Amino acid sequence: MADHETHPIFTVFTYPMNRPDAAALYEALYEVYDNKDKLEKVFKLCCDPIYWKEVPVRDLIANYWIGALDVLAREGALKTLCKKVQEDSQSENLLFVREAIQAVLSARQTTLTKKVFEEYRLVLDRKLLRTNLQELLSSNAGARRVFLVRGEKGSGKTWCRWLFEQMAEDAQAAPACYCDKNTAPTVKDLLNQLFSSFDVRVEIETDEQGLLRNVAIVGETSWKVPVETTPSGWYRALCLELKKLAADRKKPLWIIMDDLGKDEDNQPILDEQIRLFFEQFVLSMNNTATGQWFRLMLINYPDDRPARWKDISLLEEQTRSDDVQFEDVVDCMKEWALSKKLTLLEEDAIKHATALIQTARPEARLKHIHEGLITIFDTLKEQPV
Question: 309: how many CB neighbours lie within 10 A of its CB?
Fold first, then answer.
């Protein structure tokens, strides 16, 4: 995969001012291009000049630059900005500008190597998943934006969500919208969650079978009930409306839908209409105008793909309970100790990892390893430094 597809600054939706290298470039830019005319000139060299009107007007040039950088980020023009500034005679002899640009150009995506996400949330292996997820950052027209996660029971399918959510955060997108059997058991619940992500209220009527009978989108005057009021017709229209909201608000949305499979009695865990909705959503994602605003992770999706997906290229992960191996446990322990500024001897990490791997029960292997690590970490925290 090309570097620009996984770059932590060039592939975000809004300018990542929280990064020191990005903040240093911002400061260099407003110091060199220190008035509106200079800013406008360099902006229009980087993307379609029509977008200049979307930059909020500000009194202070520093604040003007913040809005301009957000628009350039959204249009995938930050790399072009760096090149144009490098070529500009006004800045080419200024060392601090060259150093700021070089730091940004050489930045690399590192977050998805992380294993310790929170005190009691560890994502140990998933090396292939971590690699494949990088493609979701790409703004290329042909990039894959839908990720199917399948696997045996207890193999960590749902746990993949934490990597997806971390990537949404890295991309400066809105917080990922997670839905499952508890938060969205019906298509009505799901639609309410998705539209509320854009602060839009929907009024939904369903019949006795749970099929949509009417949908009103409050405050959206352009919304019209579709001519074709079959489930597929409703869902196509609603996907189009979600795209419109995302584009109007310049707000990307990363969506995780869990529990799409069947239970132990071979019955669907969720309302079957939810699968039909996502069948349409995936089809709509094949259009770049829609796909650029959304990323989907569909967890526990059944093996029988819809026939209409045959020409759609999707990312897929098949999780296994034996994915996590000895070296993954050792690496996780080292990262945890480093994050806590504690000393963990190599021999102690090896001893603990060996015991965990050897005693993990096959029927709940990952759960046993995870709980064992938490117990070890709690013990190590109590030891004197």
Answer: 15
Long-range contacts of 238-243, Cβ-Cβ distance < 8 Å, separation of 24 or more: 238/191, 238/277, 239/280, 239/281, 239/284, 239/290, 240/284, 240/290, 241/217, 242/194, 242/195, 242/198, 242/294, 243/284, 243/289, 243/290, 243/293, 243/294
How many Cα neighbours within 13 Å face the side chain of 62? 6
Please give the DSSP secondary-structure letter assigned to residue 380: H
The Cα–Cα gap between 329 and 362 comes to 16
Token duo for residue 131? 């690699």
Angle formed by the axes of helices 78-87 and 20-32, to 10°? 50
Q: How far apart are CA 265 and CA 288, in angstroms?
A: 39
Q: Given this model, what pLDDT does residue 1 score?
A: 34
Give percent above pLDDT 70 in the chain: 93
List the alpha helices (DSSP H) in 220-306: 231-249, 272-285, 288-291
Residue 87, token pair as written in the block? 């070529």
> 110 pLDDT exceeds 60?
no
Tokens standing for 342? Answer: 């504690």
| CB contact burial 357-374 (16+ within 10 A = b; e otherwise) | beebeeeebbebbbebbe
Q: What is the sign, positive or negative, of the torsion defined by CA atoms of 242, 245, 248, 250?
A: negative
The answer, yes or no, to whether residue 65 has pLDDT greater than 90, is: yes
Which amino acid, one-letter code, is at 282?
V
Taking alpha carbons only, the member of 286, 309, 191, 288 closest to residue 241 is: 191
Alpha carbon separation from 219 to 89, 190, 321 (Å, rounded)? 50, 20, 48
| Average pLDDT of the segment spanning 194-209 | 91
Position 384 scores a pLDDT of 67
pLDDT greater than 80 at residue 325: yes
Exposed / middle / buried, residue 350 (Cβ in 10 Å: 0-12, 13-18, 19+): middle
Sign of CA dihedral 311, 317, 319, 325: positive
Where does the pLDDT of residue 140 fall: very low under 50, low under 70, confident under 90, or very high at 90 and above? low
Query: What span, in angstroms and rounded, lies between the C-alpha atoms of 385 and 382?
Result: 9
Query: Torsion angle of alpha carbons 53, 57, 61, 63, nearest 10°?
Result: -110
Mean pLDDT score, 49-78: 92
Please state, in angstroms and rounded to a whole number, the distance separating the CA atoms of residues 319 and 311.
Answer: 24
Task: Give the model's pLDDT for residue 135.
Answer: 76
